[in-house]
Amino acid sequence: MAQLQLSPQQLPYRELERLRQFRRDLLKIIPIGIISIPPFANFLVLLLMYFFPRQLLLRHFWTPGQQQEFLAASERRRRAAHPAVLRALARAARALPEPQPRHLLLQLCAQVCATPRPGLGFETGGTFGQVRLNIYFYIYN
């Protein structure tokens, strides 16, 4: 990223997710490394990893059952925030002066509200394709 002089906003969705996961993994590994420096502290670290795998182990070391359980819990937490986000997005959509982006944004809100697990396809270019919405400009100006 530094060699190509790219900012995080220019990365594709999957690469951005890898970058976020790498940072999360570092935040898990650094404290464990510091705790395990004293002699015999490795036993304490192993014991903590056994009882708190989600917080201390990287995704790579989770069992398939743990992966399903932990990712389902994360998804439930994210979904709890959806109604508030969708209400704010619908308000922002109504404030857009152009009809096409307004229609697309309201259609997206309706699709997400109607579908229990919407497949929005962010990896394949997003729902809007090449239409770029500058919602903040309309909201804050």
Automatic annotation (TrEMBL):
InterPro entries named among the record's database cross-references: LETM1-like_RBD, LETM1/MDM38-like
Q: Membrane topology for this entry?
A: Single-pass membrane protein
Asked if the Swiss-Prot or TrEMBL record annotates the protein with the keyword Protein transport, the reply is no
Domain Letm1 RBD residue range list: 11-94
Query: Can you cite an annotated GO cellular component?
Result: mitochondrial inner membrane
Q: Where in the cell is it found?
A: Mitochondrion inner membrane
Primary location class = mitochondrion
Segments crossing the lipid bilayer: 29-52
Q: Which GO terms describe its biological process?
A: intracellular monoatomic cation homeostasis
Keyword list (alphabetical) reads: Membrane, Mitochondrion, Mitochondrion inner membrane, Transmembrane, Transmembrane helix
The record's annotation in Pfam families points to: LETM1_RBD
GO MF entries: ribosome binding
Question: Looking at the record's lineage, which domain of life comes first?
Answer: Eukaryota
In its UniProt entry, what is this protein called? LETM1 domain-containing protein 1
The gene for this chain is LETMD1
